[in-house]
Amino acid sequence: MSTASRRAFPSGADAAEATLSLARDLVAIDSRYFVSNLPVAERIEAELDGFEVERIDYEDPGGVAKRALVAHKGPDRPAVALCGHMDTVPATGWPKEAFEPRVDGGWLYGLGSCDMKGPLAALIVAAQAAPADVPVTLLLTTDEDGGNKLGAKAIAARSEMVKRRTPKAMLIAEGTSLRPVRGHRASINFLATAHGVQAHSSTGEGENANLRLIPFLAEMLPLHGRLRSDASLQDASYDPPFCDFNITIDNHGTGRNVTVARASAVVKLRYSKRVDPAPVVEAVKAAAGRAGVELELETEGFAPELEPDHWLVRLAETLTGKPSAVVPYGTDASEIGHICPTIVLGPGTIDFAHKPHERIDIAELQASVPLFLDFARAIDERC
Questions:
Q1: Which of 63, 162, 210, 262 is 20 to 30 A distant from 248 in Cα terms?
Q2: Nearest 10 degrees: CA dihedral of 372, 377, 382, 383?
Q3: How far is the C-alpha of 184 from the C-alpha of 181, rounded, in Å?
Q4: pTM of this prediction?
């Protein structure tokens, strides 16, 4: 850990310009989840003069160096945690300017501008601008868009600063159009793998792994239909009410005239707090057993959801003037939200994330800074 000397932090119009400038800098740094995020983490650390900073380094399953950051400013007491992630999805479908931030018509364009380097910049500027008597903790993760949320897990398990100064409430700044989100779904990933023997397909000597995977996938079809028709596996408070059950398939680059040596499918189940995933888990396991394919499970911590009358939900509704909601996607809250009551609230919208020409409304991005500051003040006063 290190503590640097304090400096004057931006406010008002200066904060708005600082937010856009930092967002552009972050977009320009490649931090797709399969590459190291150290360059973007180092750029962020350059903004943290006057903060106590804790670096949490680890390697992802591919051996790539990663870093999560915890930073605290203000009095040595717990209060609000402002959380965001540094990584992005791949640049699939993007033209070459994915890492060339562009301002056009009141929008900031670029990979990660919405999810979530723009909101991340707003969090940092808000923490910089917090009054000296208001404590603020930043929890900056990575590997969120990679699906395994390793940065959030690392902070939850290893951060000495969080253990010493456990926050009273957390705000995760994923894009919600500045509407408070009190809950979302969590994921279970089923990794199914079938093995064959590679050979030229014309010889008849190979064994195609797809022929073992297909029976497993055939059983996923009625299960997919059941999730959309069985009310006992749905939650009417969500839109859509049925669980996500998304299937992706990979033959690992095998040519069309080669029998497939390895065929994989990933089935992603998203479920809310009120849905018991056990029947789905058992059905997938049984199908894998009958088909003779290998099956691994990757399970997130939990599906976070606060009750509508929770004090943090009411506070967020008061500060934003908007009713709270639940959403079908996920955030780091599933792995870090057990630390303290957690709300999801940030500029931008999922409608513009994870696609070419990703963008965020600059006015909304800049408006989030005073909102985050109000949130920090209100939590400190309450606690």
A1: 63
A2: 90
A3: 8
A4: 0.91
